[in-house]
Amino acid sequence: MGQKINPLGFRLGITQNHRSYWFAEPNEYSGLCEGDERIRNCIKSYVREHIRNSSNYGGITHIGIERKTDLIRIEIHTGFPALLVENRNRGMDQLKINVQSTLDPVNKRLGLSLVEIPKPYGEPNILAEYIALQLENRVASRRTVRKAIELAKKGDVEGIKIQISGRLNGAEMARVEWAREGRVPSQTIRARINYCYYAAQTVYGVLGIKVWIFKNEE
Prior knowledge:
globular, structural constituent of ribosome, alpha/beta, 8 strands, KH_dom-like_a/b, rRNA binding, single chain, Ribosomal protein S3 C-terminal domain, 4-stranded antiparallel sheet, about 220 residues
């Protein structure tokens, strides 16, 4: 039986960086990990409710969190920062209020900033959100995958692999379909591979979307 490992954790410290930066005592470590997860879930749910619709999607690649003594600094890496800034519901101000409500009363200072990704379609998270949005709107899966590969080529990537599993196009039996373009050396540690898993909530059930993107080698 094959042994699988997460492509990001496999390369952590080599071609991948940590998403959280802080130090804690052993008895506080689990609580801070839960706090980081609450912050990320709060931001993602806000984007899903107020920004993501049938015509666009949030476009968040990852969320970096840095904790200091009296400050929590959050960096939202996104390919479309205008969607957050120009939101009709006060945009970043309302998002900061929502995040502040999830923190402990001791943590009073919060810094929230946006980091723009120059080539958003070269990120697996944005492509996975795009695929999920198309599948939820009942677009054919193969057509969606072909369009996603075309968008990825605009991001200067050397290879991409997409896998979709579930009841594709409303079929009775679940199956797995995948497509690959270029090189994706998943077993090479020095290869800069970004990976994302995303779940699409369709009327036929949940579809699992996995995206691997190979950019270059160290």
